[in-house]
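Q: What would this complex look like in 3D?
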Amino acid sequence: MMSTKVNRAAVVLEDTLASVGLRTILSDYFYPIEVDIFQGPDEFSSAVAISRYDFCFICHPFYNCLCSNQHLLHECKIVVAQKNPGRPDGNVSVLDTALTPEEIIQILSRIIRRPMTDDTENRKELTARETDVLKLVVTGKINKEIADELSIGFQTVLSHRKNITNKLGIKTVSGLTFYALSCGLVRPEDIKEK
Amino acid sequence: MILYKSMNLSEVIRENPTTIPVLGRFGIRLGVGDKTVEECARECGADPEFIIAVLNTYLNDSFFPEKQLRTFRAGQIIDYMSKTNEYYRRFQIPTTEKHLFAFVAMGGAQNGSLAEICNIWKAFREKLSAMIDRDEVSDFPKYRQMLDESAFDSPTRGIEPATDDEEEAIESLLEDMQNILIKYVGGDYDQNMCYAVIFSLNRFERDLRQNNRIRRRILLPLISGLDKSQ
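A: Here is my prediction, written as structure tokens for the whole assembly.
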């Protein structure tokens, strides 16, 4: 759960009910996704200046307003969403909001096809240094002691611990102990009784 | 799904059977007939508004009526949390343990990794038991005594509540057990029993998380605010 990438979508449509409906479909069928609704291109422009969106569902009139500010959209996958949106154009996808819910979900599943997890990050083995940190964590060492023993900074230890948790999906020392024992990284007699 | 007190309780339960233990904490038992949530609540002497607020918090992760919850009496919240502790101790812990131990036993003695999972469970059980003991032996009686002495239903002084970190660690142990079973279980084991364990852990984690949300964001600020006003 913790390593799952959360997609972010902006919905910028003229019709409030369509916006809310699209947000419901996205939230119900394309977890994990965060959806923000904007009332118009100005509100969206302000938000996109500080936030990054993976997808932008926008109607034609609003899209045309933003065409002069294409840089705002360069990191988004653009989906023109409205009744009779026409044909896809270049990198811009289309979603006909007059279709049935099932058809809309099928189209969305093609648009949001990318893997939900960041595979390169998720499937990495622990590095040698992370393994060193893990061994010391499960033998009962606190962060300060680990930093001293490995001659690294305290913040570096915290960073390694965060990476270990993200890669293994395990947060607690008890859970990490299980992992270290089952992989043979430590022996049962190395584990300090708590 | 947002619930209202005018809803037929049997339909609510049919759609959301996980509300059964929550209702039980208010003294509402099955055999509800065609009564509404409000009617059942009043029959048990419970506040329907409070029940609805707790049920909605429990059912909807993203729904947390913080302002409304803070309008309820601290005594109501303490009673609810105390019943929840009792539920954990008398039902949820033994049930999860029964599934887990059966799962480990069916895996055979040669599968040491399953036995190791029991150690994580034991760490969780010890932490949760300590938290419950502190609630029931120390904190809640102290809160109640202060409530009795105050006309405003207001605790309290000298409270040392469980820290966020401590509660987070308790919930994280359940989360870790599920991730370990899903990602790293190996050797001989019974997949159906494993599903029963994961399901039980998942229900427990969810319940504990919602309960601790009420504790952290409602009960403790209420107590802290009242403490400052004294």
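A: To summarize the key features: Chain A has a mean pLDDT of 85. The longest strand of chain A covers residues 7-12.
Q: Very helpful, thank you.
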